[in-house]
């Protein structure tokens, strides 16, 4: 297999072979092993370069797709607003003419009424809130502010943290 065709897994397998050679030589690194290490380090570096170039390409693609999402979201919004204006004009024309129904060869148009409800939760008393929760017309939600919890407990050793806090660590690569 040509060096530039090796997969990352192949390169890691080569490192395991070098590890076995190091163990066989009782940990002594001779010139031959040193040269192999340098070669494999270069292969690994080249492979990581390739991965990073691909990651950057994908990030560029993501940014492009985000811009297209924004572009199409704006277009969709323009079309939705156009539909609203058309519907409002149609409604207004029936209201102005005093007609509640009009039939054409293609459609039947008639006026309808709708209601939009909202609740001003700021003026509800605690008793009214509890009553709504009891009737299952509302819910009392508890939401953790994780950044505040982290700030509060960050100076405490892991062993002294409350059991309800889980910290999961993971490795990542930095690229400069």
If you had to describe this structure to a student in words, what would you say it looks like?
The protein has a domain of 107 residues. It has a two-stranded antiparallel sheet with strand order 1-2. The protein is mainly alpha-helical and 176 residues long. Helices cover 57% and strands 3% of the residues. The longest helix is centred in the middle third of the chain and has 67 residues. The mean pLDDT is 90. A hairpin with a 4-residue loop joins β1 and β2. α1 runs antiparallel to α2. The protein is elongated, with a radius of gyration of 34 Å. It is built from 4 helices and 2 strands.
Topology summary:
Blueprint: H1 8-24, H2 31-97, E1 101-103, E2 108-110, H3 126-134, H4 146-153
Antiparallel strand pairs: 1-2
Q: Keywords for this structure?
A:
elongated, about 180 residues, mainly alpha, about 55% helix, single chain
Summarize the structure.
By secondary structure, the protein is mostly helical.
Order of helices and strands: HHEEHH
Q: Looking across the biggest beta sheet, what order are the strands in?
A: 1-2
Residue share in β-strands:
under 5%
Tertiary shape? elongated
Largest sheet: 2 strands, antiparallel
Radius of gyration: 34 Å
Helix content: 55-70%
- Average predicted local confidence, pLDDT: 90
Per DSSP, the total helix count is: 4
N→C terminal distance: 31 Å
Query: Using DSSP, what is the number of strands?
Result: 2
Low-confidence stretches: none
Oligomer: single chain
> What structural class should be given to the helix and strand makeup?
mainly alpha
